[in-house]
Amino acid sequence: MIYSRLLYTEYENPHDEDGEGAYTIFSTQQAKDVNSMPLSAVCIQKFAVLWEGRPDTRVIDLIEEGIIKGVLAPVKLLHASEGTLFIAYDSMLDDSHYEKFVNAWADIASGALHDCWTAMFIVDLDVTNRVESCRLFRNYAPGILEKKVLGIIDFTSDMFLFWDEWDPENISGSEPQEEPQEGSEGRYDFDSFDDDIKF
């Protein structure tokens, strides 16, 4: 499903047999590291959104605001539940940037459409099934963070979406062309024009 003009949907996991646990892995371009320092090259940031029931697109609105404000980089997983936005963030975020990150996302969460959410911050290394949070976050967030590669990664050529189509037989117009005759490169054969064409 397409959720945003700023996000690419990498993967969607459906609900389990209990009707819970659906999540989406998103990616977006990222030019700064988790501590707001410029990266030497544009990278890809992957993060997850754990849904409560069907996807709540208000979360997407908040993510877009986070991108625009330049504070998405530390985010690894988001989950909105009963007026709280749970944010699992990268442990590489240092103390000097933590307060700015928290203040920015507290402000973003408070502006949720038709609501005012409270932001709760949990470092990714502390996300376990005993962390203080809602039941869905405790039950599903640890597995997502453990099994999926999330965070900022280098963009490499093998991430090209059409990589598998780059076999020579799949490239459009790759059929062998007839070799030009010697001495004919870049020349017109004026004798082949119709006689009634005047120059």
What does it look like?
Residues 184-190 have low confidence and may be disordered. Strands 1, 2, 3, 4, 5, 6 and 7 form a 7-stranded mixed beta sheet that branches. Helix content is 21%, strand content 26%. The protein is α/β, with parallel strands linked by helices. It contains 3 helices and 7 strands. It has one domain. Helix 1 links the parallel strand 3 and strand 4 (75-81).
Q: Give the distance, in angstroms, between the N- and C-terminal Cα atoms.
A: 59 Å
Helix-strand makeup class: alpha/beta
Please indicate the count of domains.
1
The count of strands amounts to 7
Which key terms come to mind for this protein?
199 residues, alpha/beta, seven-stranded mixed beta sheet, 3 helices, 21% helix, globular
What's the SSE blueprint?
Layout: E1 8-13, E2 23-32, E3 38-50, H1 57-69, E4 75-81, E5 84-89, H2 95-110, E6 118-123, H3 135-147, E7 151-154
Parallel strand pairs: 3-4, 5-6
Antiparallel strand pairs: 1-2, 2-3, 3-7, 4-5
At a glance:
This protein has 199 residues and is α/β, with parallel strands linked by helices. The chain has one domain. It contains three helices and seven strands; from the N terminus they run βββαββαβαβ.
